[in-house]
């Protein structure tokens, strides 16, 4: 037995190897990086080359990733045993820009050019897909004597695929092109267009089961015009996300070039993305309202990658329990009951999980139905205390403050009024005109005749 395997077995027996908390995983030049609450908690190099795509299993404690070093291989990586397993190998140089996993059908999906491929990871299906033989001359898979499966073409798109996403509740796979967004059943039938609008480049897709919405990025001809868009899963009720850099007081309805969103992923509480040319990781509270609300985005870290514009290297740890909260989804609910690895969650842990990062500006409590309830701080309202009473209240650069629960504006020298709506220059001009008018209406005869001379009551002939 290999020394590493022996060490891992010993650690497992003594309980020294265990899973860890993480929010997102990011692939890079030298393996995987895991982040929790904005902090890097673990770097893991599963002895592979550059990681070009990642996906998370919402049921089991594992992630999937695609590696470009040897024959374009998709691996699974167990976060408890720290073991990797090769699953699919493509004998070509067509990369895997995006892989996704559906826990209901236990199938992997990935895209190559015009094609969307699928491969089942169900034990019986996977066993039958392995063919006896010598894999290669490399000692890369510990002398495994199998050819790895290549996958099956599920869908051929009319245009080059930009990204894919899976709706496990509805049983759909979505894919994007520069001409729009389409979806089909997970067996490839029922194909339909849900968004028909041409853009310069539509780069990334992500689906949020809890809110039943799809998110995507639109890269315009000028990166400074790139946006994050969202809509219902049928393409209706489309909105553009408004967000504010927490370090800059500008509203980004149109995103700055250096922060142009690219690779998207969704968790229970946040929307994450990497920017286009650089690998900055950004975190945005997941909106529950899109109208007249600007949310604060936060830069988490930078993962050095020279080609982040192409790959989808980020995935969130979005567990099934969180995805189905408040949503009727039998397909995912049954997974919790059937998953032998799942453990009962205590009431206190469940309450903490439900409330974590839910209320933006307030305290969270849990109802008898295990639903979060927010008690907002003064000056904030909304279901999640996301609406600031001062937001957009003071005009012309005025600063808003709350005094005895009332909004008060502190205006600049150039403006005044309850909301700083009046220009001081304009007000002074009006006052000057009024004074001049009063002067013109004054009887000036006494000043004309001179001092000591009285005006006659009548003319003397």
UniProtKB/TrEMBL annotation:
GO cellular component: plasma membrane
GO molecular function: Wnt receptor activity; Wnt-protein binding
Ranges for domain EGF-like: 386-421
LDL-receptor class B repeats: 171-211
Domain of life of the native organism: Eukaryota
Region forming the signal peptide: 1-19
Keywords: Cell membrane, Differentiation, Disulfide bond, EGF-like domain, Glycoprotein, Membrane, Oogenesis, Repeat, Signal, Spermatogenesis
Protein topology in the membrane: Single-pass type I membrane protein
Name used for this protein in its record: Protein cueball
Organism: Mythimna separata
